[in-house]
Amino acid sequence: MKKNLDPRRDMEIPKDIAPFVAKCPPLLPGESDMQYYALFDMLMEEIRPDTTTEWLALADIAGLCWDVQRYRVWKGSILNIYRRSALETALRDTHRSRAQGFGCDAPAFFGIARKEAEEWRTDPEKRQVLDARLAEHGYDEVALNAGALLEAMEPLSKIERFLSSARGQLNAMLKEVYVRRAFAERARQALEKRLQPAVSATELKQIEKNH
Question: What is the model's pTM?
């Protein structure tokens, strides 16, 4: 992990615990270990662990934050994938409504819609023609996005469950860290209150003895 250049905020991972916490999790293509380490450093500076348990908790918290961000990116990618499918469905439906009674078989519609969807993405002139046809049948951008959401409902639901699980674990880990710290602080204050009268009495006896 990189050290913060500000000496007031500089932290180092204890040598003995480093092998257990200073490891980047397995990454997928397109993910950056530098981004993970930057996230770890930011969390380290914010949480500032000072016990072995807190350092181990920090490693779990960083991994959970990474998972949450990963799942959020995947949600957008899933919607983009299914938007293509929704476009093909809309193009196929417009053909079906125009070609009723002409004896066109379903496989032909699928092939034509797939070809037109690719043209819609790559050919600006063809896209204008297809947009006009889609608009005639009530398919605008909002309708296509809604269609993508409906088609992607099952995989999106799974991602939401992963997100909910990761967020729940993350909140529990953070709560545990801060509850432990609050308890330790209360214990320290209680101990100081109990020791203060004894210290004061000892100092008073010492003063009386000197006089």
Answer: 0.73
